[in-house]
Amino acid sequence: FGQMLSDSLQVPVGLILNAIGGSPAEAWIDRKTLEFEFPDILYDWKQNNFIQDWARERAALNIRKSTNKQQRHPYEPCYLYESGIQPLEKFPIRGIIWYQGESNVSRRNEYKDLLTAMISDWRQRWNKSDMPFYIIELADFLSPTDKGGRTAWAEFRKAQAEVADTNKNVTLIKNSDLGEWNDIHPLDKKTLGQRVAAAILIEMNTKNRK
């Protein structure tokens, strides 16, 4: 992605990778937004059914030996926002590539509102009401744990598409054709990076023509 943009634009391109494997969307949203729009997520999150079972179980496993009752975990609501997004607010970020969702599939009916709230909040933080967001469609994968299997993932991708369709400057990048049925991580990452770069370059050319 970065190489393609740099080669095409002939300028240095800076990338910030901020990724925690398996993290749910609610971990990347600020506390005020969750308190106002999704208060139930914050209540006893390690026993909260709003949080996907896999995420709660993994978090409990990771901190099981801690003697501190206040021990936090990256999957906790707001945690990754407070530790990984808020410190970046002074950086002049031009846009966001958002590739996440596997840990929200079981709550896919709420995902559209959850992601829309996150996009709105991040844009306010950077004071850019039209800051571009590029949502990576979930890859095709036959999950053995999510109720509904492949149907659940298809419904989740529909929610992703609806976020892109109903929010300005939000683009969905096709990825469902690049996945493996038995591996949650697509092997062909180069093609996906090129698709995101191509989408950005096309939008830039369109704006320049106007």
Commentary on this structure:
The chain is mainly α and 210 residues long. It is built from eight helices and three strands; from the N terminus they run H-H-H-H-H-E-H-E-H-E-H. A three-stranded parallel β-sheet has the order 1-2-3, with helices on both faces. The longest helix has 21 residues, at 189-209. The chain is globular, with a radius of gyration of 18 Å.
Gross geometry: globular
What is the H/E string? Answer: HHHHHEHEHEH
Terminal CA distance: 25 Å
Class of secondary structure makeup: mainly alpha
Strand order of the largest sheet: 1-2-3
Number of helices: 8
Major sheet details: 3 strands, parallel
Oligomeric status? single chain
Approximate helicity band: 40-55%
Number of strands: 3
Residues in β-strands, percent:
5-15%
What is the topology?
Elements (H helix, E strand, L loop, with lengths): L1 H8 L21 H7 L1 H4 L10 H10 L16 H7 L10 E3 L9 H18 L7 E4 L12 H18 L3 E4 L15 H21 L1
Parallel strand pairs: 1-2, 2-3
Helix pairs in contact: 1-8, 6-7
